[in-house]
């Protein structure tokens, strides 16, 4: 009786626990996140109901609340209205009280009303999942004890802690504090690896904040998105349909002058364009300046290297001063940094017509190609190769 219906070895219990927690994180990342919050993937009703039922058993999460809080996080990211920003509340609070912050925001009726639209509102949601959300956890405890005996209590405890620790703590906390960034978005989101096996690809948080409506969270060839792997499997058997993924730059033959097609492609792929600018212009120029600088200037360059790449909105006053000191010391870096800022400003002018945007981009390219910096000149010429993939 102490062993339950399944008399497993130690490793058997470990595997069972991992299977249960994997189903939980798959339910969160595929159903709650990519399907419900961002509508990036369409799920067969049977799959949706399985995910909803498992979430009721293993987390007690109410779909409307989770979706509303997550959407508000994107809308108010890194502000005082963000439900869970470590930049505002501190990393320690997110790691230790992430679940409590979620519960607090779930009691905010305005958040649920304004951001929870389009979530399930059927009989099951109204009569069972929403009003009796905690009863699912108790049912899961009974199932675990029946299957695994006394060990089932430990397995149940791990299940209950899985989402608060990995999602509320690691993704929402560390994912906005430590890690690497593929794209310089205006929030502090980062990618953290190699935790994909544990949290279903949610660790690729910077990629997600760059393209929130993409069903695929991985960007680099070496990044692995477990949730995307599951979605592809479901797609193969007709149980899921991908609605949107992040755009990929398409390069064609260079045109004599930048045209509307180039402009559309640049705006569509602006985050990849700026990532390329950092890689192909800023970093080579920094390398050149390091080789010919004196010791004092080299130390300044090394300390401020990341500041040249980081979005200026995320820099503290102290960091901004360090950056300014670096630029004042080096005219070449000051030049390429100024061109970076000007390029970003082009697509930030939302009130400008396409005609004026095109003129601004053409003028940027013309000036960049004659600025006297080889890396900048090559990059400006590559602008004329960006095009729109008509298949998309």
Describe the protein's architecture and organization.
The protein is mainly alpha-helical and 392 residues long. The protein has two domains: 10-242, no CATH class; 251-387, no CATH class. The protein contains 19 helices and four strands. The protein has helices spanning 10-37, 45-58, 63-75, 86-89, 91-106, 109-115, 123-129, 133-148, 151-171, 196-199, 205-210, 226-236, 260-268, 270-292, 295-309, 317-329, 331-348, 354-369, 374-383, and strands spanning 41-43, 240-242, 250-251, 386-387. The strands form two sheets. It has a two-stranded antiparallel ribbon. Helix 14 (270-292) packs antiparallel against helix 17 (331-348) and helix 18 runs antiparallel to helix 19. It starts with 9 loop residues before the first helix and ends in a 5-residue tail after the last strand. The mean pLDDT is 92.
Summarize the structure.
It contains 19 helices and four strands. The chain is an all-alpha fold. It folds into two domains: 10-242, no CATH class; 251-387, no CATH class.
Indicate the topology.
Blueprint (H helix, E strand, L loop, with lengths): L9 H28 L3 E3 L1 H14 L4 H13 L10 H4 L1 H16 L2 H7 L7 H7 L3 H16 L2 H21 L24 H4 L5 H6 L15 H11 L3 E3 L7 E2 L8 H9 L1 H23 L2 H15 L7 H13 L1 H18 L5 H16 L4 H10 L2 E2 L5
Antiparallel strand pairs: 1-2, 3-4
């Amino acid at each position: 009786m102490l062993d339950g219906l399944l008399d497993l070895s130690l490793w058997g219990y470990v595997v069972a626990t991992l299977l249960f927690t994997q189903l939980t994180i798959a339910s969160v990342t595929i159903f709650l996140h990519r399907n419900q919050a961002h509508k990036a993937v369409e799920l067969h009703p049977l799959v949706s109901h399985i995910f909803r039922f498992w979430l009721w058993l293993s987390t007690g999460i109410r779909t409307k609340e989770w979706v509303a809080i997550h959407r508000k996080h994107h809308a108010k990211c890194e502000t005082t209205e963000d439900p869970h920003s470590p930049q505002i509340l501190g990393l320690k609070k997110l790691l230790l009280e992430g679940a409590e912050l979620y519960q607090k925001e779930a009691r905010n009726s305005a958040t649920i009303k304004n951001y929870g639209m389009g979530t399930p509102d059927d009989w099951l949601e109204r009569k069972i999942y929403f009003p009796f959300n905690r009863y699912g956890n108790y049912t899961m405890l009974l199932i675990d004890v029946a299957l695994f005996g006394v060990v089932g209590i430990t397995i149940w405890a791990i299940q209950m802690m899985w989402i608060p620790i990995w999602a509320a703590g690691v993704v929402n906390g560390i994912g906005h504090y430590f890690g690497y960034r593929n794209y310089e978005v205006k929030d502090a989101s980062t990618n953290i690896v190699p935790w994909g096996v544990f949290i279903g690809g949610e660790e690729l948080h910077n990629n997600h904040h760059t393209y929130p409506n993409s069903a695929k969270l991985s960007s680099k060839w070496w990044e692995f998105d477990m949730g995307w792997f599951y979605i592809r499997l479901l797609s193969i058997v007709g149980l899921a349909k991908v609605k949107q993924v992040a755009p990929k730059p398409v390069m064609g033959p260079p045109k004599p002058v930048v045209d509307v097609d180039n402009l559309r492609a640049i705006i569509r792929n602006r985050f990849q364009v700026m990532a390329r600018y950092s890689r192909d212009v800023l970093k080579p120029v920094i390398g050149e300046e390091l080789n010919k600088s004196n010791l004092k200037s080299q130390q300044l360059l090394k300390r401020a290297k990341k500041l040249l790449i980081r979005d200026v909105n995320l820099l503290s006053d102290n960091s901004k001063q360090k950056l300014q000191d670096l630029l004042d010391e080096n005219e070449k870096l000051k030049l390429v940094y100024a061109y970076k800022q000007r390029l970003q400003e082009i697509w930030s002018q939302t009130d400008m017509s396409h005609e004026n945007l095109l003129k601004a981009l053409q003028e940027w390219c013309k000036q960049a190609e004659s600025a006297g910096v080889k890396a900048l000149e090559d990059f400006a010429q590559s602008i004329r190769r960006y095009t729109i993939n008509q298949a998309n």
